[in-house]
Design goal:
iron, 2 helices, Pirin_C_dom, Pirin_N_dom, Jelly Rolls, RmlC-like_jellyroll
Length: about 290
């Protein structure tokens, strides 16, 4: 089995102004513009709110999936409520409008990931999945607890419906604990340290809070990524997904295969043809 190495390390930059006034600060965990290296992950934002209240405005998406991980606090809109540890997995597909009348709590922090859809499913019907932390499968071994929101780790397999095969897990490790999650070798993957310190990969790359370690796809069927917590333990989010190896163009909230397809999304939105997430029943997980 392939033992993965960490190919590159980035750090979440200092928070800057967000889109919703003084109380909103944000930074990019995954920056757009280098999709060949991050495929299928297009971007990921780290959003912080210092004061409760309305958050943003209703807006559209098309041609992608958004994966919103609630790290702290709560967010509630017409589509439902996310509490700490919950995830909304929204497939925009042919187009959707969401974040209607969104309200957030003081101290809210979330990660929002944009996933590129496969060419054949870019315009699939939209759907929304609410992944409640308490309902997610958990893989446990000595000193390790991994909540699995998508994909499989060990004996824990999530029922989340994926257009792109993706593993998403929240891994909590006690001091000096070791864990070697198995991943398909073809997946591109990154880890984000939320708390504590750890080493990752065959070379024992040191990672600390707000550092992002990337490990690229390789040959073979399976691989493992060695993780070892530091003296104070660690909390690590693991994202891994199947690269799509396609060319995409992006503008505003849309990702498409061509400028013509982008223009079609804008026209459909202006004509009111996108359904609203708040009117859609979240997909039930089997």
């Amino acid at each position: 089995m392939l033992h993965r190495s960490i190919d590159r390390v980035t750090t979440i930059p200092p928070l800057g102004p967000g889109f919703d006034g003084e109380r909103h600060k944000a930074a990019l965990v995954v920056s757009p513009g280098n999709f060949n290296a991050t495929d299928p992950f297009f971007l990921m934002a780290d959003d912080h709110i210092t004061l409760e209240g309305r958050f943003g405005e209703a807006h559209p998406h098309a041609g992608l999936e958004t994966v919103t991980f609630m790290l702290n606090g709560t967010m509630e809109d017409t589509g439902g409520r996310l509490a700490e540890g919950d995830v909304e997995w929204m497939t925009a597909g042919s187009g959707i409008v969401h974040s209607e009348d969104a309200m957030v709590s003081t101290g809210m922090r979330l990660f929002q990931l944009w996933l590129v859809l496969p060419e054949g499913q870019r315009n699939m019907p939209p759907r929304v999945q609410i992944l409640q932390r308490a309902a997610m499968p958990v893989h446990v071994e000595p000193g390790v607890e991994a909540i699995v929101y998508s994909g499989r780790l060990g004996d824990a397999a999530a029922a989340t419906k994926n257009a792109v095969p993706v593993t998403l897990a929240d891994i909590r490790m006690e001091p000096d604990a070791s864990f070697a999650p198995e991943l398909p070798a073809a997946y591109n993957a990154f880890t984000v340290v939320i708390d504590g310190e750890a080493t990752a990969g065959a070379g024992g790359e040191p990672l600390s809070e707000n550092m992002v370690g990337w490990t690229g796809p390789a040959g073979g069927a399976s691989s493992m990524l060695a993780l070892r917590a530091g003296a104070k333990g660690a909390r690590i989010l693991l994202y891994a997904g199947q690269p799509q190896n396609i060319e995409v163009v992006a503008q505003g909230p849309f990702i498409a295969g061509s400028r013509e397809e982008l223009a079609g999304y804008y026209a459909a939105f202006r004509q009111g043809r996108f359904p609203h997430a708040g009117t859609m029943r979240p997909v039930a997980l089997a």
